[in-house]
Amino acid sequence: MYDFGLARRYVDKNNNIIPSRKEVGWRGTTRYGSLNAHKRLDLGRRDDLESWFYGLVEMTRGTLPWRNVVERNHVQKAKEASRLAGRTQFLFETPSQYDKIFTLIDSYTFESAPDYKQINKYLVEAREERQLRDREHWDWEDETVSTTITTITSFSDKELRAKADQQYAIAL
InterPro entries in the record, alphabetically (predicted)? Predict the structure, then answer.
């Protein structure tokens, strides 16, 4: 899903990056906002990736360390800590490639062109390491219909065995 509510042009008509506006005020959702958002700096592509990454970690782990923190400045401190001593806790039980992605995102500046191919490579490595399939049927699709749509939803071998065991138990 995409939300373009906060979107704005970052290149001019000549395809040159529009300079940062410096301080712009708070933008985004506290839980997923980038550190630059907390610092009220202009947001760019790197900030979109940082917000996406927080969502990725949350989907993988089931939570974020600052999930129940209400104060925006405390969330900022937790995000800052996730880059230092709290990094192990933040990335707990996530693929090792997440650390590489996080490092890559943090290396970008406002003007940087993100290396999406490298990020995708890390994600493919993580999927292959965990033996996750890259193609699945959507829940609402007829199982007999063949599809070439790549989905984010994949089941691990462990999940597939559990489903098979559950169906076996039902059959008994």
Answer: CK1_Ser-Thr_kinase, Kinase-like_dom_sf
Extract the residue ranges of the chain whose pLDDT is less than 50.
147, 149-153, 172
**DSSP alpha helices (H): ranges in 27-135?**
35-38, 45-61, 72-81, 87-90, 96-107, 116-129
- Selected from 3.30.1240.10, 1.10.1650.10, 1.10.10.10, 1.10.510.10, the CATH number assigned to the domain covering 35-129 reads 1.10.510.10
C-alpha 58/C-alpha 29 separation (Å) is 14
- Dihedral of CA atoms 60, 96, 81, 53 in degrees, nearest 10, equals -50
The predicted-structure confidence for 98-122, as pLDDT tens digits, reads as follows 999 999 999 999 899 999 999 999 9
Q: How far is the CA of 15 from the CAs of 9, 10, 12, 18, 20, in angstroms?
A: 10, 9, 5, 9, 15
**Nearest-10 Cα torsion for 34, 40, 42, 44:** 0
Cα angle 96, 102, 103 (rounded to 5 degrees) comes to 95
List the chain domain ranges.
35-129, 136-172
